[in-house]
Design goal:
Largest sheet: 7 strands, mixed
Structural class: alpha/beta
Low-confidence stretches: none
Strand content: 25-35%
Shape: globular
Mean pLDDT: 96
């Protein structure tokens, strides 16, 4: 199959006039469908698409990996460029009042728009906790089971209910799975429910064991050294052939992973294009 994956928004930027911005947006293009996973934090996805000569009007569907501002804040800009009705696939929990609370520091980190505004710009939300098959070769994970002993949800993520807060299980966390025929390509948003949990579930959903490539946010930014090494061991056991880290992976974790995977490792920053 013909496949091109373009990272439109990420914390860091490649050579040229690309913008780096905390967040993530990755475009998957095939002969069957063009799917945009997330939209970054604000203007970077649209700006970088312009630099690359990518027409966002050719996007067929948008998938939101979860309801945080750094993955949804570019929706207004992206929808404005599309100028058409577009289906947006996400989990119902994406509209929860999501907050970050770490000691005395924290605040609202949910979607920065009202649903009505986005629908007025052409958004047609399909909200489901289940996996969604987009084409014969592309699907979303839906809710990801927590099965590993070493992966856990960030304790600083909470949801506001009334005047109180409860832990956010981030059930809306999801990834894109592409079956290339030569192995799976798994595109992560933040992997809040664990990169290894996500990969195990991708194998379970597709019945395909080989994993050709994993790219996106691995959410190891606050992980212990033990968890980082357990993650590396599991990735090797899974036989991941290429690993492109982004966004919430965190530089300390990336620096440990890079020598362990050698030429198979790369920084998946804004402007990166991968062709199959």
């Amino acid at each position: 199959m013909k496949l091109r994956i373009t990272t439109l928004s990420e914390n860091t930027a490649g050579l040229g006039s690309f913008l780096g911005e905390w967040g993530l947006s990755i475009l998957v293009e095939t002969e069957e469908m063009n799917v945009l996973l997330d939209t970054g934090q604000s203007i970077s996805a649209v700006h970088n698409a312009d630099i690359l000569g990518i027409d966002l009007g050719q996007v067929d569907k948008i998938v939101l990996s979860h309801g945080h501002f750094d993955h949804t804040g570019g929706l207004r800009q992206v929808l404005g460029r599309m100028r058409k009705e577009v289906e947006i696939i996400a989990h119902p929990d994406m509209w929860q009042a999501k907050y970050s609370r770490r000691g005395d520091v924290g605040g609202y980190i949910g979607i920065p728009f009202a649903r009505e505004e986005l629908e007025g710009l052409g958004a047609n939300f399909k909200l489901t906790p289940e996996p969604v098959r987009l084409t014969d070769s592309i699907m979303t994970t839906g809710e990801i089971p927590m099965v590993t002993e070493f992966e856990e949800i960030d304790a600083g993520l909470v949801v506001k209910e009334g005047t109180g807060f409860k832990p956010d299980k981030v059930l809306d966390d999801r990834a894109l799975i592409i079956n290339t025929g030569a192995g799976l390509v798994v595109v992560l948003g933040c992997a809040h429910r664990g990169i290894i949990n996500t990969l195990y579930y991708a194998q379970q959903l597709t019945g395909v064991k080989p994993i050709h490539m994993v790219l996106g946010g691995c959410h190891l930014i606050s992980a212990t050294e033990e968890r980082i090494w357990l993650t590396i061991a599991a990735l090797k056991e899974l036989g991941v052939e290429r690993l492109g880290v982004s966004h919430c992976t965190g530089m300390p974790a990336a620096m440990v992973m890079a020598p362990e995977f050698g030429e198979a490792f790369f920084f998946n920053n804004a402007g990166t294009q991968i062709n199959f």
